[in-house]
Specification:
Layout lengths: L18 H24 L4 H47 L1 H14 L4 H11 L3 H13 L9 H24 L6 H22 L3 H30 L1
Helix pairs in contact: 1-2, 1-6, 1-7, 1-8, 2-3, 2-5, 2-6, 3-4, 6-7, 7-8
Length: 234
């Protein structure tokens, strides 16, 4: 019908959902371990030493990522829960003041004052709904949708480990040259960059080639530093 509102379009997930942290965790593992493997290879170390260094880098990086992500998300969650307790007490002790506060939010958005207060009153009948509304308006969070520290830690560990495995995998399987590790890691970065395009809406080749270029630069710089320090120390 002419003039009717369109209801058929869909928006992308602008927060990135699970894809963004997973892909960026994998890219972090790829770039950091590619740099480590390239640096050790540049120092003329043997393939066994490179494999050990790469696996050690994988374990250390994955545990570090998991610990950091767990601490960060847990701290954020604890802060939000503490603020929700404050809001819950205020709703219990000063219900009229909180109702007026909610009405003023709607008034600021252009709702008629009388209507705004009536809407706020009706929405505040249920204490849990009132808490959710105040949490969304004042804190910008949904009380029933807080992130899990455990899930964040496990997903970060897995994503980083998967990415970090690619540069060291050829050496684990018996490779004696650096180029298979570099090719495999750069292919992984190209794929990760293409996946990022699902979040950023950039062309897949743009995001993919950008990540490939950054990874290649990291590998080249690390290899050069490894060669320099390997010669200097030797």
């Amino acid at each position: 019908m002419p003039g009717s509102a369109e209801a058929h379009h869909q928006h992308r997930d602008v927060t990135g959902g699970w894809l963004r942290p997973a892909v960026f965790g994998a890219m972090d593992g790829l770039v950091s371990n590619l740099g480590l493997v390239s640096g050790v290879a540049g120092s003329s170390a043997g393939s066994r030493a490179i494999a050990i260094a790469g696996l050690a880098g994988l374990a250390a990086g994955a545990f570090s990522m998991a610990a950091g992500e767990y601490t960060s998300v847990a701290s954020q969650r604890e802060l939000v829960l503490a603020e929700l307790d404050v809001e819950r007490r205020e709703l219990r002790r000063h219900p009229e003041a909180e109702l007026t506060e909610l009405a003023e939010v709607y008034i600021a958005r252009g709702v008629d004052p009388e209507l705004a207060r009536e809407v706020a009153r009706q929405l505040s009948v249920d204490p849990e709904q009132a808490l959710e509304l105040h949490a969304r308006e004042e804190l910008g969070v949904a009380p029933d949708d807080l992130p899990s520290p455990t899930i964040a830690a496990v997903s970060s560990f897995a994503a980083f480990a998967l990415g970090a495995l690619l540069p060291v995998l050829p050496y684990v399987l018996g490779a004696t040259a650096l180029w298979p590790a570099v090719v495999l890691a750069l292919a992984g970065l190209l794929a990760c960059g293409a996946l990022v395009a699902r979040v950023t809406a950039r062309p897949w080749w743009f995001s993919g080639l950008r990540q490939l270029g950054l990874g290649a630069a990291a590998a080249a710089l690390s290899y050069g530093l490894g060669s320099f320090f390997g010669t200097a120390v030797g």
